[in-house]
Amino acid sequence: MWEKRRFLGPLAVSLALVILLSLSSAVSTSVRAGLADVFSPLQEALYPVFAAVGSVVTGIGRVVQAARRNTVLEGENEFLLQEVVRLREMEAENCRLRGLVDFQRLAPFKMVGARVIGREVRHWHQSVLVDKGSRDGVVPGAAVVAAAGAVGRVVEAGHNSARVLLLTDPNCRIGGLLQKSRTPGLVEGDGRGGCILQYLPPRTDVVEDEPVVTSGMGLAFPPGILVGLVRETRSEKLGLHQSAQVDPAVDFDRISMVMILIREEL
Amino acid sequence: MSAAERPLPFPVRRAIYHPEPGGYRRLKSGLLIGLLLVVSALLQSQLPSALGKGNFRPDLVLIAAVFWSLRAAGWSWVPVALGAGVLLDVFSASRPGLGMIEVLAVCALVVLVTRPLLRDSRRLVFVAVAASALVSSLIYYLLLILFSSPPAPAAAWTGAIWPHLWQTVLVSPFWIWVCALILDEGKKPDRRNWG
Fold it and tell me: Which domain holds residue B83?
């Protein structure tokens, strides 16, 4: 009897691994999304508690910095007020021109607000779990944005939760372009909290702090959403193209509310 | 005092303190380790929010699984390692199944390379956890090469392997203590042989 039982463990393991590896990606992903749904109410309940603790911890440090930054921000505020007036003028002009050319919006998006309820547990990936799923119309591939800019894409949607792959993950790629020169490229995560705008033509003049926005070419994201600011550029091997290191506009460490943009055709 | 009478310098694991668990004991310890793994995974996913540091992700699930592998009798480490791997997969954006294989391989190594007589030593548990944190990252990197798209080695080291190692080692004394508190409940260490 004991001799037989000795083989049960390895047998069960081998069987489990064979089943697991033979499952198609779609099946295993949906199984995982289902399991994530099971845990999402717990995470939803725990998140406010841990977020409150986090806000106290980070709040102490922020108070010291706040007074220093206040003076700088007041100056910026005056400048931005002037900028708002100028942009309002441009918006009004834009509306008039749209009316003239009978412009149709190409990609209408349905927007779903969602709360971040869990973080990624591995260092290898950059993702968050949000509290909206297929019940609310969320589908894999949908774009996710925050007030500060682009956040990432939905990779898995369970019934009442969805996993969002952040822009800083190497597997997250979206179309981006340099705002001033309108040069398109591909934005992908560097896995270390930043992004890289790749495949820029070698002679493109890229300046530091130039904004990078979504190009809208991947269709998931509408064009013109801020991705981040260029920190530095470097030429790739053979000099065929260059890439720019981008500091994301969104603070992924503190992100708590996001908006999921669902294309109506998706 | 002759050499035979001198007490051993390390705690000796004696069969009488680790009897083959009966039905109730097995169920109870199974429930406890299951609960501990779920709590570890939930904490692991909430810690970055609590600390305001998105990159602080110590592997509490791995610590619990390694702790159990060192204490468990027979093959009971296998379902626990599988469960821990499934939890890591559920709370992550990784390809499903990779976490399961990774934790299973790490726990198998822990069981294979440690001497049963020394497994009660807290120092050994700490060393095993530290080694597991490194080995699990290396195994996962190999799995990424086989089944997915891995980052460049330098990026993998700075972005994943090194942070995983130091953060897990940093919290391991506390989490090992928590594991011992929950799983060794009611088990009083016998010091008669310690001299």
Answer: 29-183
What pLDDT digit, counting tens, does each position of B141-168 carry? 998 888 878 888 888 898 899 999 999 9
Contact A253 B97 (CB under 8 A): no
Residue B51 lies in a domain: yes
Retrieve residue A147's tokens.
């007030």
Answer whether residue A16 is part of any domain.
Answer: no
Strands (E) in A120-241, as ranges, are 127-130, 143-146, 149-157, 162-166, 173-178, 184-189, 195-200, 211-214, 226-235
- As a whole number of angstroms, the distance between CA B7 and CA B181 comes to 27
In the numeric block, which tokens belong to residue B133?
């944190």
What mean pLDDT is reported for chain A? 81
Return the residue matching tokens 């993998």. B156
Q: Do A54 and B100 touch (CB under 8 A)?
A: no
**pLDDT tens profile A10-28:** 666 666 665 666 566 677 7
What is the mean predicted confidence (pLDDT) over B112-125?
Answer: 81
- Alpha helices by DSSP H, listed for B97-161, are 98-113, 122-147, 153-156
How many domains, chain A?
A: 2
Taking an 8 Å cut-off on Cβ atoms, the answer to whether A191 and B45 are in contact is no
Task: Say how many CA atoms lie within 13 Å of B156 toward its Cβ.
Answer: 15
Pairing of strands A173-178, A143-146: unpaired
How many domains is chain B built from? 1
**Chain A residues touching residue B97 (CB < 8 angstroms):** 17, 20-21, 23, 28
**A94 shares its domain with A155:** yes
Contacts of B92 in chain A (CB under 8 A): 120-122, 125, 127
Q: How far apart, in whole angstroms, are the C-alpha atoms of residue B147 and residue B140?
A: 10
Q: How far A220 CA lies from chain B's nearest CA (Å)?
A: 20
Nearest to B49 by CA among A253, A135, A138: A253
Cα–Cα nearest to A234, from A244, A226, A224, A225: A244
| Rounded to 5°, angle at Cα B76 from B41 and B146 | 60
CA-wise closest residue to A193 among A134, A251, A130 = A251
